[in-house]
Design brief:
Blueprint lengths: L8 E6 L3 H14 L2 E6 L2 H10 L4 E5 L7 H11 L4 E5 L4 H9 L4 E4 L4 H14 L13 E3 L2 E4 L4 E4 L2 E2 L4 H12 L3 E4 L4 E4 L2
Parallel strand pairs: 1-2, 1-3, 3-4, 4-5
Antiparallel strand pairs: 6-7, 7-8, 8-9, 10-11
Helix pairs in contact: 2-3
Length: about 190
């Protein structure tokens, strides 16, 4: 678990595609609340995961020196860190094998980076770990629904709810004006009489 006082989430990206790894790192940086380290082969990834203090590892299957499955097995023998596996192949067999040997989640490459972030946050929520934008001041929880304004993400339980921008704005207005009627004419919430 991370030790940053500001609740930064430490992410280790292990991928031999350096451009993709850099793209993911930059995207996580723009999301806020994430600190990213990268390794580009399986052996270096295992060493970093075992000796570092990461909150989550994003691990590619097709790695040099040590493939992602073997890297995952070695990581699991040493530390209990959440692992999201990525593969360009996307075969069901690869996904099943990855989950069977201890991956917490699995995404095919290329993946939607917003979905990757949402899955990382869902894993951390399940484990009760802070995730930057998920501090109580930055999220709204209503029953089993969680709204994260910083990333404009909405979850029902651990599942990401797919909303258009307009749908999110309507939901945001409804949540912000709870207990009030909303008039489209004056564009602001007002109290019921």
């Amino acid at each position: 678990m991370n030790t940053h006082p500001d609740s930064m989430v430490d992410v280790l990206i292990v991928d031999d595609d350096e451009q993709f790894a850099q793209l993911v790192a930059e995207f996580l940086g723009t999301e806020g609340g994430f600190s990213v380290a990268m390794r580009h082969d399986g052996a270096a990834g295992v060493e970093a995961a075992v000796n570092g203090r990461f909150d989550v590892v994003v691990l590619d299957v097709g790695l040099p020196r040590l493939n992602g499955f073997e890297a995952l097995k070695r990581i699991r023998r040493e530390v209990d860190v959440p692992v999201v596996m990525l593969t360009a192949r996307g075969d069901d067999i690869d996904r099943i094998l990855g989950l069977e040997i201890g991956a917490d989640d699995y995404l095919p490459k290329p993946c939607n980076l917003q979905e990757l972030v949402a899955r990382i946050r869902a894993i951390l929520r399940r484990l009760g770990r802070a995730a930057g934008a998920e501090t109580s001041a930055d999220r709204v929880v209503i029953g089993d629904m969680t709204i994260e304004p910083g990333s404009r993400s909405v979850f029902r339980g651990d599942d990401l709810v797919s909303l258009t921008g307009a749908e999110y704005l309507v939901l945001d207005v409804l949540v912000q004006s709870a207990g009030h009627a909303y008039s489209g004419e004056d564009d602001r919430p007002f109290r019921r009489s």
